[in-house]
Amino acid sequence: MSPAHELYERGLRDHLAPALRLLGLTGGPRTFHLPDETHWALLGLVEQRTDGRVRYTFDLSLVRRSAWTAAAFPRLRPDPRAVYGIESWRARIGEVLPVGEDVWWEVLPGPRWRVALDDSVAAVRHYGLPELRRRAERDRDAVDGAPYLTPAELEQVNTTLLAVPVARIQRAELTDGLLVLIGAWTRADAAARTVLRGVAHGFLSAGDERFAAVRCLDTLGRPLWDFAAPDR
Questions:
Q1: Do residues 156 and 46 share a domain?
Q2: Host domain of residue 177
Q3: What pLDDT sits at residue 36?
Q4: If DSSP codes are grouped into helix, strand and coil, which group holds residue 192?
Q5: Which of 116, 140, 164 is the last residue of a domain?
Q6: What is the 3-state secondary structure of 58-78?
Q7: Domain boundary pick from 88, 107, 140
Q8: Judgement on whether residues 192 and 223 belong to the same structural domain of the protein
Q9: Quick one: 72 and 126 in the same domain?
């Protein structure tokens, strides 16, 4: 094991995991969750090991306990690093930091080797956990709207997307006369826009009077595209 790997494992055991538990998280050493009666509010350590070096970041994931039970996955609790298709919300921690992009920390040998660990804990404390709590409360109050599809029905829709390089639909909800589709898409993804336009028109062709348009959001709740019925 390289000196960097040894320091990383020591830092994870003696500094990172204990610090995260002091913030109210339980579990470890690589997956943690906040105590919550209605949701699995999760934090997962994502690692990359190459050429004797190791760097890490965090995945954040929010899953309704009722949805997890209904899906009957063969695990006691969700793994925040996995995508199940029933998440209320998920993101890499860099997305909720001020930089708004992927952020990784690396433990390097030397007198200041703990700086990365302390900085990553601060990111969790000031940005990751507040966002998880806010998302859980928002979802609990049904601000995002009522679920439109069961996990099984959503899985059927996502099956049709397997043939194209487009991220899965993570949630489908009704709110204010709109069917809202949420997924890990970006405005610059022309392929996703084209495919989701077809998906939206498929939903609209069903003639469901509860919605007159389909709106697509990214996983941070930012609007991407709106689609109305072809004859509107």
A1: no
A2: 146-228
A3: 93
A4: helix
A5: 140
A6: EEEEEEEHHHHHHHCCCCCCC
A7: 140
A8: yes
A9: yes
Whole-angstrom Cα distance, residue 159 to residue 149?
A: 14
Q: Is the dihedral of CA 162, 96, 18, 38 positive or negative?
A: negative
Q: Given this model, what pLDDT does residue 230 score?
A: 66
Residues 33 and 95 in one domain: yes
Residue-wise over 191-213: b if at least 16 C-beta within 10 A, else e?
ebbebbeebbeebbeeeeeebeb
The enclosing domain of 208 has a CATH number of 3.30.300
Token pair listed for 225: 């595209």
Residues 83 and 115 in one domain: yes
| C-alpha span between 221 and 219 (Å, rounded) | 5
Same domain, 117 and 183: no
* Exposure on the CB side of residue 213, measured as CA atoms within 13 A: 9
In the structure encoding, which two tokens stand for residue 147, read together? 């679920």
pLDDT in tens, 196-225: 999 999 899 888 888 999 999 988 788 999
DSSP 14: I
| Alpha helices per DSSP H over the chain | 3-11, 17-22, 65-71, 115-123, 129-140, 151-159, 190-204
Q: Who has greater pLDDT, 49 or 151?
A: 49
Question: Phi, psi (5° rounding) for residue 77?
Answer: -145, 160
Q: How far apart are CA 156 and CA 173, in angstroms?
A: 16
Cα dist. 188→49, 93, 171, 224, 225 in Å?
30, 21, 21, 9, 11
User: Is there a contact between 167 and 202 (Cβ–Cβ < 8 Å)?
Assistant: no
Specify the number of domains making up the chain. Answer: 2
